[in-house]
Queue: 2 jobs
Job 1
Amino acid sequence: MNIRDTTAYSLRAVVTHPLRAFLTVAAIAVGVAAVVLLTALGEGVRGYVTKEFSQFGTNIIAVNPGRLQTHGVPLGVFGTVRPLTIEDALALERLPAVESSVPVVQGNADVEYGRRTRRTTILGVNHAMLRAFTMDLANGEFLPDGDPFQPRPLVVLGATVAKELFPDRSPLGEAVRVGGNRFIVIGVMAFKGTILGFDMDDIVYIPTARALSLFNREGLMEIDIVFNATRSVESVVKQVTTLLEARHGAEDFTITTQQQMLSVLDSVMNALTATVAGLGGISLLVAAVGILTMMTIALAERQKEFGLLFALGIHRRQLLVLVVLESLFLAGSGGVIGILIGIGGAVLVSHLIEGFPVSLEWRYIAAAEMVALFIGAVAGVLPAIRASLLDPIETLRTE
Amino acid sequence: MISLSNITREFVVGGQSVFALHDVSLSIDSGEYVSIMGPSGSGKSTLLNIIGLLDRPNQGTYVLSGHNVTDLDADGLAVMRRRHIGFVFQFFHLIPRLTAEENVALPLMLAGVHGKERQEAVDKALAAVGLSDRRKHKPDELSGGQRQRAAIARAVVMAPSIILADEPTGNLDRKSGEDVIHVLEKMNAEGITLLVVTHDPEIGSRARRRLLLRDGAVAEDKRPDALRA
Ligand SMILES: Nc1ncnc2c1ncn2[C@@H]1O[C@H](COP(=O)(O)OP(=O)(O)O)[C@@H](O)[C@H]1O
Ligand SMILES: [Mg+2]
């Protein structure tokens, strides 16, 4: 039996029962579509988040006060946690491997201009912030490199804040009140959008020392360190640790590298994707049971046909191929339709929810089709074996 | 052509042993026309199935056109069946979704014959049974007699050496039955060995050799023409 005849025969058998074929194809299609769509969304979110996190470059480490990874008894029981200070940041900057350091304080306060007020996020940072986090200015300048302890009262507005407070004029050179204190606007940031629901434009930047006094804080929340990309992360972490330990008398701080952040993020995203793929897998399993049932019913009806084929001299192997092909057709086309629906769904989602990240992963799509075909093969083989074991005499005896 | 020696076919049903055929020895020459009669349950179908290689005897030896087929495996039997045997069943067993022409082409398809060669064989077989003008009809658009003629075309399309017909007129009216017998006899006249199982004495008596089975054994084996000659 040649391939064309075999294929034509199996196809013919499939299309003879359009409703049955449709149901089987639909079951597989739904499962595959679920896998394709869900993984596209999952991977899209993963890719998006990873990109947002790594856009700052990998040569940044963050130092936070307090010991996060203390084993056993919390450090606070024995000693006090010394705050991170601007002096610490300056000392770190003098390390050979460190290019710049950004002392960070964050809080919320009202920003006022005339009769307009907006409550927004205040970030106390220094001039190095702009380069460390590769941010762009729309107008004016960023905070200058001045006296870190007595900085001038200058402020840089995020795009949203600038638009809200200065809807019809340039804010440059204007005086605003931040938490009641007078600041002069020297720059406006370029539009950044949101990262994980956080509006990156609803922020104003003021010098760290000003933020410390504004929020009445003793210590920094974080020091971000940009190190020379030719140095290994490990050596920088070691230098930073040694220096801060010497200054504080204990390891009362926590260092987080970009790699650590990314790997935590990655494991979360992996779990998410696995869950999502699992859900799709369950729907494929349901489809598998469906196709098996359909094939079993369909073949039970065709016992006479198989008995006849035996009488006409078909080989057991040929019959197996014929029957398995039928189920492969159903499953394979269900898979292809499912992939198209899945892709369509992903495209639709990315259009409906503006900016929603979707990423069609060919390896998942290929895997889904493989699984569909595998299901088809399995669901076909069992009834096919049963068909090939039929006693032709028995089936041909009656009408 | 067909040589059966001491063939026994035993079925065990619920611990009870039933001998469908018991120590049957029989020889049929190429081109013979044999009718097989006998009461229900006498072993006629079993005999045909064994000759047609659909069934195997428990004991005995079967030599088909010089090949000992007694111990062939399933694939070997399928090949012999394809090459030598054409079946005609009481219930036609045409595949409903296929046209008459496609049903007739099935054995060729299974044997890997394709293209022009296949079409010519199909055309010839359909013409031989007088169904050329019904080639595109599906079985449910054909009368009983036409269906059985399509089945005969399917049986002869591979140019077999033997046609085995198990009550081919059992499901037909008198007129259609006669048509079918005439078609089968025409095939026989062209040299194909013909074995017909029938309940109809009139049809049975048309054969040049008449077997009567009783309780799984050949009770009579008559050749009226030969006697007269
Ligand atoms: N598959 C089978 N299982 C059990 N008994 C069978 C089977 N096939 C045939 N027989 C028995 O063998 C005997 C001969 O059957 P069969 O050859 O069909 O007779 P016929 O065709 O002459 O009516 C009967 O008694 C029948 O019941
Ligand atoms: Mg019978």
Job 2
Amino acid sequence: MRLVVDLNRCQGYAQCAFLGPDVFRLHGEESLLYDPVVGAEKRDQVLAAAAACPVGAILVDGPGVREVDAVVG
Amino acid sequence: MSAERIDRVVIVGASLAGLRAAEALRDEGFTGRLTLIGDEPEPAYDRPPLSKQVLLGQVAADATALPLARDVDAQWRLGTAATGLDLDGRTVLLADGSKVPFDRLLIATGTRARPWANEAEAALEGVLTLRTSADAGRLAALLDAKPRRVLVVGAGFTGSEIASACRERGIDVTVAERGPAPLVGALGGVIGEAAARLQRAHGVDLRCGVTVTSLEGDEAGRLCRAHLSDGTVLEADVAVVALGAIRNTGWLEGSGLAAGPRGIAADAACRAFDHNGIATDDIFVAGDVARMPHALFGYQFLSLEHWGNAVEQARLAAHNMLCASRDRRPHLWIPAFWSSQFGVNIKSIGVPTMGDEVVVTQGALEDDRFVAVYGHRGRVIAAVSFDHGRWLDFYRCLIESAAPFPPEFAGVDRPPPGTVPVPACFPDPSVPSHGPTVTVSGYAPSERRITFTPAPA
Ligand SMILES: Cc1cc2nc3c(=O)[nH]c(=O)nc-3n(C[C@H](O)[C@H](O)[C@H](O)COP(=O)(O)OP(=O)(O)OC[C@H]3O[C@@H](n4cnc5c(N)ncnc54)[C@H](O)[C@@H]3O)c2cc1C
Ligand code: SF4
């Protein structure tokens, strides 16, 4: 599963780090670092964090989106 | 404009702005054929982690792929560069010789790292730039090999973040910066001083006011030494050239669009200008490659190499390319970016480079925790925070309402008495004069309005 955090919007209160400790972590006092691509076993953590983020800064793959099937060339 | 059918939309540049525009086009109800053309072989990935999580060894360089909020039902032509644009024929030419016709085109080709000017030196093993995931993979591997010393050439945001990652991994690092301090081009000399202190406190060998004159390799073609303009000779195994970015507009040469080294000029609706300065109605631009006027900042053409700008302009361009002209929306997003370095969260809102004065309104520079507000001709124009990011929304409101500078406010912890604005010390300060006042109101994109108050005669 893929995710991205809009760090302009993020307020660094770390709810995500509490709910998804294997994916999100604070670096210093308010810098958020996270893993942009995680395995299925962390999916629940990511979804819980995304739902709890007070500013809606965590964007994840939409339900049922397919991988990009690239035509190379 | 008569309601022209839009059946084919082509997006050139399949990274952050391109991907977000594709999503937005489908959100806006576009059901026609959508093609994304990107010269990188990988599906769209996020770049900010490349100089942070990836260099810290927390995330693999090829594991920063961007999520898709929805299915975009597009044809992706990845690993293929666009090489030309036929404005009259409404066709994009590709490197493989094929031609892709469009009714609307979005150009989101971004920027690339400015290479080291001396090609032989740039080709030495251990000399590299950082822009792509492949670059980040190479640099991460070099850091894993425990180099004796890393030389970072240029102390902008990318260079500073690289230095930060090195120190965190216990690697000796020298930063060579031509200007008087790190980040000085983006944030000015006052905040630059704070950034310099931060670097030195973390053990960076920071050398300002110097340039790297040459890079020297051994017989095997590996970097071994760097020569600085002050005569210093430095032993280093890795040199990261972080001298800013070049806009990817070469493929548009001769196309008739107003595209050049400074980007592609567009109006506030993201419509590209042709070289006569006339807005096209079918070619749109978004992201790092674009420059467009912003009402709130004196209608100056702003080129913003920021993540948030790419996202906003992509949405705006998608909306404006599909709707009737009276429903077009202007680019009114207030520029914002972040950086994470030396454990400090740096955030910026507004346009600090327009500031002629700066004042610390919260916290203290020497504690690496503060908000500094920039003034331009007596109004608040920008704010920058070090580990005070939660306040920036408040300052955004001051910027949008053209609040007087220095700001007067109750409700936040006050600066110590005697704190007065000082010159922001940008290398090239602007000349004060008087102009009209523009303010912005509204939150939802469709409600954002400007109010224009002419200057008293
Ligand atoms: C290391 C690093 C760290 C960063 N950190 C931050 C940060 O902390 N905060 C922040 O706000 N911003 C940050 N940024 C900036 C942010 O990543 C950019 O603003 C953003 O990537 C811009 O997106 P874009 O889609 O406009 O351009 P790009 O991401 O540059 O994408 C343009 C795409 O177009 C492709 N392309 C170019 N020419 C052609 C062609 N002729 N044909 C086909 N395809 C073409 C390119 O290869 C690329 O894939 C960082 C950037 C880097 C490199
Ligand atoms: S919960 Fe949201 S706002 Fe809080 S740190 Fe995480 S991403 Fe940032």
